[in-house]
Every structure is written in C-alpha cells, then in structure tokens.
Amino acid sequence: SEEITPKPVQDTGSILKQGYLEKRSREHSFFGSEWQKRWCVLNRRTFFYYASEKSKQPKGNFSVEGYSARLAFHLRKDSRKKCCFELICPGKRTYEFTAPSPAEAEDWVDQIQFLLKDLSSLTIPCDEDEEELYNDVDSSDAVNTTSHNTTLNQDEPNIEMKEEDIYEVLPGKQPKKQ
Fold first, then answer.
1. CATH architecture of 15-122
2. 119, exposed or middle or buried, with CB in 10 Å at 0-12, 13-18, 19+?
3. What residues contact residue 1 under an 8 Å CB cut-off, 6+ apart?
4. 3-state DSSP helix/strand/coil percent for the chain, to nearest 5?
5. Backbone dihedral angles phi then psi of residue 63, each to the nearest 5 degrees
6. What is the pLDDT of residues 73-99, one digit of tens each?
7. pTM for the complete prediction?
C-alpha cells in the first residue's frame, strides 16, 4: 500500500525548491537546541515544513503571500550565521531558518523573492522596464490585503490624480477618461 499513497510533498503543486533547513522553534526546547531540522518545500504559494523527507503530513505550512525573505546573519552567533535567512510579514509570525550553506540560504531567499514578484505581477500588470514606477503601487496595494499601513494611500493617489488633471485638461478638450 506504500506505493499507492501519494506523498503530500508531491501533490503540493509545482515545487520551486525543497530541501532540509533548520527551523527555529518558537518555544525553546528542553534539549537546548532551538533549531530543528525540517524538510521544507516551497511551491507557488505555500511553504510547507515536514519532520523529514519521508513524512506524509506537514508539521506546518503558511502562505508566502505578503511575506518577504532576506538573509539574516544576526540569528546565530556561530559559524553558520551566514546560512540564516528569515521570512517576515507585518503582523504575522516571523519564520527563521538556517540553510546547509550560505549559497543555499541565498538561493532560498532568491526563490522566495522571485515567487513573490511573480505573485504580485498577477495582480499588477507590470513590464520589467517599468518596475520603478510600480513601487508605490505595490506598497499601497499591500494596504488592501493587510491593514497595517493605512497612512500610505491617504494623500498620494489624490495628489497624483490632481496633477494628471492639470496636464490633461487642455482648452477645448474633454479630460481623458482613465
């Protein structure tokens, strides 16, 4: 019967990256180590972590939408500090990991950032060249999903609209409809 059961790892959608990471536990464990080895799987939207590669059920998972990833050398004091990275999201739990090597840590961060860029491009039509223009759209877009920074879109959009009106209303012409 072992053959027939699909491993959950495989039916999590298209896997971008998987591998062993040490994950910092929220509660310090009695054994002194707060870092626990976990088999981690990243698919298009979700980060899963399992006790081992053979596990059928994940110990946990979370949606990476809204998170950002970055290297985090401050998490450890030992020789593996350059292998650390974290996933952070305002108002949500921060996930902290140690990769097997600094290169792996960078690759996890790259994959997650790539994925997040991909996710945001689904909601915002965005040309590669015009990335800079969309920076403020990204930040005010975040307001819709998480209400942590409502100040962002109080003034800016109005100012922009007014400026556009000034430029577009020429004598004898109707303002363009947006």
1. Roll (2.30)
2. middle
3. none
4. 35, 25, 40
5. -75, 130
6. 999 999 999 999 999 999 999 999 999
7. 0.60
